[in-house]
Amino acid sequence: MGQKNDQDGADVVAGKFHLFGIFVVTLFDPGSSHSYVCSSLAFLDTVKSVRLDFDVLVTSPLGHQAIVNMIYRDCPFMIQKLVFHVDLLEMPFRDYDVIVGMDWLHRHHALVDCRLKQVTFRTPEYSHMVVQGERSLTSNYFCGLGKEDDLSRL
User: What pTM value is reported for the model?
Assistant: First the structure.
């Protein structure tokens, strides 16, 4: 996936981390209810996605829409040599390899500070671990990825 390096997005936190042993450009997005992985990211043959029983309609802030229904469960997302497991919906968007949404942020008691470009974990297990985002990786395309709807309920 590509990323836009032309702006210092004031309202996003992004960085490079490991997923299945490869570097991934990651956006931490508290405006997204789910977490995503780009469909063009090449995983090992042993990594399998499964089809959901429902479709999820994803709408970007620019109005681009996609229906997603494939998920990678319990993926090893490594930050500062610690493994955090994440469920990732497969998506066709291209600015980030991974978008970490509220499902993951809530599960790991993570707070996103867009002004300081930091993610802070507030659990006894991680004892206020702070992750510093990288300013050169930000993009305004996915800020507040936004509206996701379970299409099975429509």
Answer: 0.78
